[in-house]
Amino acid sequence: MDSHPNEQLIGEFLGNANVFVSALSGIMEQRLLADIAGKRLTLSQLKVLKLLDVTGAGNIGDVAAFLGVSDAAASKTAERLVRGNYLRRTQARADRRSSELSLAPSSRKLLRRYEAARNRKLGEAFAGTGAAELRQTAAFLERLTKAIVTHSGNGEEVCLQCGIYLQKRCLVHDVKRAECSFQQRAARRNRNGTGTGGTVPRRFRLGASV
Question: Is the full-model pTM beyond 0.70?
Fold first, then answer.
C-alpha cells in the first residue's frame, strides 16, 4: 500500500496529540485529583464517579462497558469505591439478585471541587487561544475521531466515553449508526426493565442534543 504523502506530518501530529493527552491526564488531572482526594482515587475511578453523576445510578455491567473492562475488574473498582464511601450500593428494584450503584453525597461535592479546579487550570492553559481557534480545532479532532471509527471494523464494540466529555451525542452512533457497548447495555436494560429501572439520561441517548 502506498504511503500517505503527509505521513511524516501525520506522525508528528499524532505524537503531539499523545503528548497532549499525557500532559492533561498524567500531569494536570492527576495532580489536581491528588490535591483534592489525596491518593485515595485514581483517574479511572474518577471516571466511574462522573458516569454515575450523569446517569444517576448504574450497575457493574454498566461500569464494565463504560471502562472497557471485564465485569470482574469493574466489580473490584466498584468495591473499592464503596469501601471508600464514594459510592452507595443498594439492591436493584427490578432484579433483587443484582445491586445498584449510586454516588454518595460526598462524591458530588468532590466532583464539583475537581471540575472547578480543572476549569481554572485549563482557563490558564488556554488563555492565549481564541474562541474561533478552539472551535476549529474541536471540529478537526471530531472529524478525525469519526474517521478512525469509520475505518475500524469493531467501533461499536467499544465505548469512547462521550457522555462525560461531550454533551451532545455518541460519536460511534453518529458514524456507525449503531450503539456503542455502553449504549447497547442501556438499551437492553430499558427494553427489559432491568438494572436501575430508570431511563438513560438525555445526554446519553443516541442522537440526543442538549
Answer: yes
Give Cβ neighbours of residue 163 (< 8 Å, ≥ 6 apart).
51, 54, 55, 170, 182, 203, 204
CATH fold group of domain 7-204:
Arc Repressor Mutant, subunit A (1.10.10)
Phi, psi torsion values for 160, nearest 5 degrees = -85, 0
**CA 24, CA 82: separation in Å to the nearest integer?**
27
Extents of the domains making up the chain: 7-204
Instruction: Give which of 185, 189, 196, 200 is closest to 101, Cα–Cα.
Output: 196
The rounded Cα 110 to chain-centroid distance in angstroms is: 17
Strand ranges in 26-116 using DSSP code E only, listed in sequence order: 87-91, 99-103
Radius of gyration of the chain (CA): 19
Average pLDDT, the chain: 80
Angle, helices 43-55/30-37, rounded to nearest 10 degrees? 80
How many Cβ atoms sit within 10 Å of the Cβ of residue 39?
7
**pLDDT, tens digit, for every residue of 119-133?**
999 999 999 999 999
Q: Give the phi and the psi of residue 53 in degrees, each rounded to 5.
A: -65, -35
Residue with cell 499524532: 14
In whole angstroms, what is the distance from residue 150 CA to residue 141 CA?
14
Q: 162, 23 in Cβ contact below 8 A?
A: no
